Amino acid sequence: MKVTSVNELEAIRSEILAGKDQDKPCIAVCGGPGCLANQCLEVRDAFVNEIAAKGLTDKVDVRTTGCHGFCECGPIALIYPQEIFYQGLSIDDIPEIIEETIINNKTVDRLLYTDDEAGQLVETEGEVPFYKQQMRLILGNNSKIDPHSIEDYIAIGGYSALAKVLGGMQPMDVVDEIKNSGIRGRGGGGFPTGRKWESTRNAEGDIKYVICNADEGDPGAFMDRSILEGNPHSVLEGMIIGAYAIGSNEGYVYVRNEYPLALKNINLAIKQAREAGLLGDNILGSGFNFDLKVNRGGGAFVCGESTALMASLEGKPGEPRAKYIHTSDKGLWDRPSNLNNVETWANIPLIINNGADWYSAIGTESSKGTKVFSLVGKINNTGLVEVPMGMTLREIIFDIGGGIPDNKAFKAVQTGGPSGGCIPESLIDLPVDYDRLTEVGSMMGSGGMIVMDEDTCMVDVARYFINFLMEESCGKCVPCREGLLRMGEILTDITEGRGRMEDLDLIQDLSEVLRDASLCGLGQTAPNPVMSTLKYFRNEYEAHIKDHKCPAGVCTELITYSIDAGNCTGCGLCLKKCPAEAITGETKQPHVLDAGKCIKCGICYDVCKFDAVRKE
Amino acid sequence: MTANESKLDSIIDEYNAEPGSLISILQDIQAEYNYLPEESLEYVAKRLDIPRVQVFGVATFFKAFSLKPKGRQQIHVCMGTACHVRGSKKVLEELERKLEIKAGDTTPDGEFTLETVNCVGACALGPVVVENEEYHGEMTPIKVESLLNSK
Ligand SMILES: Cc1cc2nc3c(=O)[nH]c(=O)nc-3n(C[C@H](O)[C@H](O)[C@H](O)COP(=O)(O)O)c2cc1C
Ligand code: FES
What we know:
The structure holds 2 protein chains of 2 kinds. Chain A is of the alpha/beta class. Chain B has a 4-stranded mixed β-sheet, covered by helices on one side. Chain B has 2 domains: 5-61, Orthogonal Bundle (Arc Repressor Mutant, subunit A); 73-149, Glutaredoxin, CATH 3.40.30. Chain B has 7 helices and 4 strands; from the N terminus they run H-H-H-H-E-H-H-E-E-E-H. Helices cover 46% and strands 12% of the residues of chain B. The complex binds flavin mononucleotide and FE2/S2 (inorganic) cluster (FES).
């Protein structure tokens, strides 16, 4: 397929659509990271084999897609055209689905989702409470296309935004449209995208670069991965439009090393786009040239930072530099460079197709459009959710996320990754937008949302993030390198019972120095997890310091295990499993735990079926 | 030497011996040998005509590179935030006890390498352990034994 003009693209689209029978059954099996880990490919193969065995190969399509979002229920399959939502699939379920649903047009009720609140089964994806309140402008297409097929993308309207731009918009019109849409960067800082494009456009220089940040270093987040794996052409389309607006002919996609499938899919998409004439010279006959290269990251969190990323693209260690000269003036190889996040790029075709007014009507005053969050941790419905900006934390966590498992109490939600903070229960009605999150001491970040319950220790969480950042600090500037080391020591002392009340002031001081004096965003925002936990959960710090107790029962140095003789039936399971031989006792007699030998691994607590192991 | 020059040449030539492609070149060498043999770094420096310190700088800066040979089986324990709040530390400690090595090390018989990673993108299933590219979700210390025994 080679598309040489805007009109030809439309002709090809009509041709693809004419060749597709909309009523033909299609089984879309989720191949996202969560389902992959749940052996969804075996489920997919079982569908293919069963269909072949029934002689239906020409009558039913099977599609392996990107992430559908509801990881908790994986493996998932959607049956088109009805959009029946089947969950928790295993290979044994497949013959029944083919027989009942495909052949007899009936649902297999035991594989449907149960809406507990309404107390009934739901048939289609749109009725599942998890999906009902979302607005899936970006992620929604994942289940509709095979990420390896450019035809599928074109069939759902793909590259029409590019055609619109190249078919009659001036570069400045494009920049204005993006500015008017109000979109802000999805990678962390929330900088207005249109203004960034304009600066790079206006910068001096013949050679300019556009770059896609797919380093996704925020632990606990997998939005960018799912977009790149599930719909790589949407990112490409955004980048080509951006390059045209900015006046760039060369671009890069910088993909995290741990994401081999994302790498494979974006490489394939680039190859297809090149063959189709959507990348390369004279795109759609417009005279505009643009091509892209893909680079793999080296597994360093700091390389998500713009200047470090560019250093790494140049083949150097990923150390950031001071940014008094902006990368829009001097970035990659000292040339004007425009870096945007994966999700930012994926939003661009939507804005161009539907217009800035449509886009800016979604969201809040200062934050427009939707945002994808990875809703994980102590939450019932884990997965990826996409909601309009301004939805409250309560709606996201309780209505969509289904609340906290095992009837535990919600304690906090952490947003913004290692640069963000922990938001307590008292702020659960906060609308989620860039500015409101910053006001309460956290930030939007790239979209990680880690839910914590009563069993999560907030001091341990603070220590976790500081240790993470300490290891990831590139070591170039002193406040970050030394400051994080000292903060880590202090927090470790507190979690191990050696803390002093003065330490809390010291952490406060250190935090201010880090914030003011660090070279890049890593150090500047590093205090957020500590400051926010100290602000909202000071009582937990004090319990560790004054009472030598970890109220959540997490910090091993401050807890002891014992056996409650009243509940112990002497079943011997803990004795058998204890790796330290710290438990003794006769069968059917209450057992005893020797605290001196106990290594506090918690295995006895986990295996006991009679609630006889105490943790204090 | 462990690394064979014609193999290295073919990797380096694929990138036209461009210094800007240093990271990609090292990634391909690592994929070939499972680690970066020291001689290969010297050879790369010579071929790309850049100082050795630049090659060693890059090779030691990024986590993806290892200057030590790795075990036949690789076990990666996710220590990302989602896995952390669900107890990945206890899983790691149990693996360290069972394998009698610390994270980052390889068993003396060269069988297992135990490593930590920060998020493998399967957060919904945390705690996650990846052994030789196979994901194991909802891990607990108790499940560690059967994970190792299935090998
Ligand atoms: C330490 C650090 C790590 C970062 N990691 C990422 C990342 O993994 N992905 C990302 O898109 N942005 C990351 N950023 C933000 C980038 O520097 C940059 O602001 C962003 O990619 C710009 O794109 P946007 O305007 O579309 O958000 C990071 C920033 C810092 C300071
Ligand atoms: S935090 Fe472990 S997979 Fe993401």
